[in-house]
Write a structure and sequence with these properties.
Nucleotidyltransferase, domain 5; alpha/beta; 45% helix
Length: 289
């Protein structure tokens, strides 16, 4: 179970697609940086190399993360000063899905690495040890980026934050490992919805590539934000079970998440209304309202 609740926690999720540049380099496909049929051909060139003979022609096999491009990163930043009340903030990259310059993978990664390297939060994800963190590291290297403090490692485990030593450091928390210990691991949707927390709404990870090909980046970012809220609420539930949040603090954390949702909705993120509606439905269905 969880052993540490740091003053700064970042519950995050990453979305990615097959990288057309990888297909161009490895399979000599035509250049295709944006959505369209050229990019679809690039995706197919990468997928075809991983399909089994028994797979349907349209099957999208899981690709090695280094062959993929990060297109969205979202998270809930929780900050608490000593003796103070925690504050929550939604962080969403790209900040403007309609601005191509802000959507470049190198920009997304630079913003993430700099912020994490400066704040040194406790990172919380779902299957993050096997997926989200490896793709962040691999794609940062592909893009020629420095670690910006994210990659710093202390000489001894007790001397500082270490995102690369899950055995001795509590600063990279993978919730699926905490719940499953590498056996009988539930999906995020299963763990969340059975706990009265919204899981996948309208979109699943397998839909992201097709959405990107259709130019629906804003919808992908919205879906990514849903997963960030889901991950944070599930983290709070595990923190409560682990004794890091007492029952009153756990209720306050849920109230803070609801306040953040209402604030973001009032500022124009109407898609989050679906999250609130689904949350209320699941709380009633599971008898937790």
């Amino acid at each position: 179970m969880l052993k540490l609740l740091a003053d700064t926690v970042f519950s995050f999720d990453v979305e990615w697609i097959p990288d057309p540049r990888a297909a161009e380099i490895l399979h000599e496909t035509p250049s295709a940086d944006g959505p369209g049929e050229e990019a679809r051909a690039s995706f197919e060139a990468l997928w075809s190399g991983y399909r089994k003979d028994s797979d349907p022609d349209d099957f999208q096999p899981y690709l090695k993360t280094i062959l993929c491009r990060i297109i969205s990163l979202a998270g809930i930043l929780r900050e608490k000063s000593p003796g103070g009340v925690p504050s929550l903030k939604l962080v969403s990259l790209p900040v403007d899905p309609g601005d191509p310059a802000k959507c470049e993978e190198k920009v997304l990664l630079s913003n993430f690495l700099k912020s994490v390297g400066r704040r040194k939060p406790q990172l919380v994800g779902y299957n993050s040890a096997q997926a989200d963190l490896p793709i962040i590291v691999q794609r940062s290297i592909v893009n020629g980026l420095p670690g910006f403090g994210f990659s710093d490692r202390p000489d001894k485990p007790w001397l500082g934050v270490d995102y690369f030593d899950s055995r001795n450091s509590e600063y990279s928390v993978d919730l699926v490992d905490a719940m499953g210990q590498y056996r009988d691991r539930p999906s995020l949707h299963q763990a969340a919805t059975l706990s009265g927390i919204p899981g996948k709404i309208d979109v699943s990870g397998g839909s992201v590539a097709e959405m990107w090909l259709q130019g629906k980046l804003a919808e992908i970012v919205a879906y990514n934000e849903f997963d960030a809220f889901t991950t944070h609420l599930l983290w709070a539930r595990l923190a409560h079970f682990s004794g890091l949040l007492d029952s009153g603090e756990y209720r306050a954390e849920q109230d803070a998440v609801r306040d953040l949702l209402e604030s973001e909705i009032s500022e124009g993120k109407a898609h989050l209304e679906k999250f609130v509606t689904e949350w209320d439905r699941l709380l009633a269905l599971t008898g937790q309202n």
